Amino acid sequence: MFADAISPQEKQSIYFDQFLWHIFSYEKLPCLEGKEAMRAFREMNRVICYLFYQEREETYMLINAENLRAEGLRNEHDVCVVDPHFMWTYVQTHEDYCGPYFYRKE
C-alpha cells in the first residue's frame, strides 16, 4: 500500500486514521494534485482496478474500467482507486480545497 514507508508515529501525527489522503495533504509522499492528478489518472491502465471508500468496509474490483474518469468521481467523498499491484493510487477527497491526488510508486 502507498503508506507502507510511513512510520506509525508519523501516521499518528497527520491523523492518518481519520483520512488516508492526509498522507498527501500533509506532503508525506510526493504526488500530483488537482488537474495534474486527474490527467495522470486518465493515462493509467484501468483494465482492472479496485475502488474503495474510506468510510466503508467494501472494496470493488472493476474490470474493463477504462471509462472510469476522474470527472465521474468528483462528487464522491474520500474514494480511492488503485491498480491491482498498488503501483498507483488516485484519491478524491471530500474537501474542495484538497486534491484530488495521484500517487505513483517509484
TrEMBL record:
Pfam families given in the database record: DUF4275
Protein name: DUF4275 family protein
